[in-house]
Specification:
By secondary structure, the chain is of the alpha+beta class. It has 11 helices and 20 strands. Helix content is 30%, strand content 22%. A 7-stranded mixed sheet has the order 10-11-12-15-16-19-20, sandwiched between helices. Strands 3, 4, 5, 6, 7 and 8 form a 6-stranded antiparallel sheet that branches.
């Protein structure tokens, strides 16, 4: 009987693969096939499927086996490719619009555990003290080992005002840390701004969303109005910005660059993966009917002295902006080496309401530098304020090159560029409030846009003032 079941499983799987392969052939008929189909491997796959169907201790649905096989195919490629079931696909679409439920952390998988890439500013996880590089080992009482990334994200998502306990391992700590976090509706304000003092403005982009470009344009207009005239200098803060939508990054870069300047280009195996995106409205607007939100920006925005802040939490879209402004010599980049996520993920919807997120290309700056596993090297290195001589945030920095199965750079390995100018170390040894503090400097209940103790920001402002003095001379 068991032999018959095995044979039936193999026959059924063979028929299924035959259908899949015929569909695949019809879909790629116009594409060059570089190698024959791996018949032996497909036969092994069918045999394993049949063994599970006939011998596993409990019955398993075909749908579950196929979904897990798809999961394995994608998660084995690189840290950013993934299978999105119906719920995950919907959450991805909602998340880019700036509002979703959960804790507020960007995560990936490593060694079977969930690893925190970056907590999103002003979210429950951020305020609780979750750090970049934290390894989540338990969600409530359930070990994470063996979960897929989608399963882990589902458990972290939930109704507002409900709690979840995260147990994490952190570099430099001898025992796990336990955080009890209350879920909330995550409303991300992607652009924040402030007039630091007369003539000097500050704009922070926390994440690149659908409306980031137009929100930036409005923030710049407001700063110029508050200043009652053109600014003498502007700081664009991209620190701990995990990235987001590509058209948002092009829009932010286009606000400061001449029209039609190259912002980024991509290279991949297919023609669709090869793009050149310029500072042109066709590349940053969401559709032909949308009005150009950069059209009425004051001309002074294109020439205002600009300093851009980056650090190890600046990834993807934020690296595209920093790289474009650096290559065009439009801004001076200050801070520390960025994350190094220079790969393009394309979301490909499937017919059953699911999708795959597949790495399809690499990003390159206008001068042809690959961002992948290397990042953007600042023109001036300015470390965070130290405590007893140690940069406490650097202990938790996680970069693309640290992730398992990351794509190599493809140019000169993962080595950083030539050493940039290094700013003098901070004078103070006292701890300044950082992204891990749960208390706010604000008196109104909302976190301050920027802290007066922000050493890197102070270095940027001092640089802009120095440029202004030279200009006046």
């Amino acid at each position: 009987m068991r032999g018959k079941m095995q044979k039936f499983g193999l026959i059924a799987m063979g028929a299924l693969l035959g259908v899949m392969l015929s569909l695949n052939y019809s879909a790629v008929a116009d594409k060059k096939v570089d190698s024959p189909l791996p018949v032996e491997e497909l036969r092994a796959f069918a045999e394993v499927f049949g063994k599970i169907k006939s011998d596993y201790v409990e019955p398993v649905e075909d749908k579950k086996l196929i979904n897990e096989a798809i999961n394995g195919m994608l998660s084995g490629l690189d840290p950013h490719s993934a299978y999105l079931d119906t719920d995950a696909f919907k959450e991805l679409q909602v998340g880019t619009q700036g509002e979703f439920g959960g804790l507020g952390i960007e995560v990936g998988m490593e060694d079977g555990f969930v690893k925190v890439v970056s907590p999103i500013e002003d979210t429950p996880a951020f305020n609780a003290g979750i750090k970049s590089g934290d390894l989540i080992i338990k969600l409530d009482d359930t070990p994470v080992k063996g979960m897929t990334i989608n399963d882990a994200v589902k458990r972290m998502r939930g109704k507002p005002n409900t709690q979840i306990i995260l147990t994490v391992m952190r570099k430099g700590q001898n025992k796990p840390l336990v955080f009890t976090i209350t879920r909330a509706i995550i409303k991300i304000k992607s652009v924040k701004s402030k007039l630091l003092e007369s003539g000097y403005g500050y704009v922070r982009v926390t994440q690149f969303q659908e409306h980031t470009g137009e929100n930036l344009a409005k923030a710049l207009e407001d700063l110029i109005k508050q200043n009652k005239g053109p600014l003498k200098g502007l700081v664009l803060d991209l620190r701990n910005d995990p990235g987001g939508l590509l058209n948002g990054a092009v829009g932010v870069a286009a606000a400061f660059l001449p029209e039609n300047s190259l912002v980024v280009y991509t290279e991949g195996r297919t023609e669709e993966a090869k793009m050149k995106l310029t500072a042109n409205k066709e590349n940053y607007l969401r559709g032909p009917k949308e009005s150009d939100y950069l059209k009425n920006l004051p001309a002074s925005v294109k020439s205002v002295p600009l300093a851009v802040l980056i650090n190890g939490g600046s990834a993807s879209a934020s690296e595209i902006v920093a790289g474009a402004l650096q290559d065009h010599k439009r801004a001076i980049i200050i801070g520390t080496q960025s994350f190094g996520k220079g790969s393009v993920q394309t979301v490909l919807p499937l017919g059953n309401g699911t999708a795959i997120k597949l790495t399809t290309a690499r990003y390159f700056t206008p001068n042809g530098r690959s961002i992948q596993a290397k990042g953007i090297t600042p023109d001036i290195v300015a470390e965070e304020a130290t405590v007893n001589g140690v940069d406490k945030d650097s202990l938790f920095n996680l970069r693309e090159a640290d992730l398992e199965r990351h794509l190599i750079n493809g140019q000169d390995g993962n080595k950083p560029e030539a050493a940039p100018v290094k700013a003098p170390a901070p004078n103070q040894e006292a701890p300044a409030k950082g992204k891990g503090d749960s208390k706010s400097d604000a008196t109104s209940g909302e976190r301050e846009v920027v802290s007066k103790n922000d050493y890197q920001l102070n270095q940027a402002v001092n640089l802009l003032k120095g440029l202004q003095i030279l200009k006046n001379r």
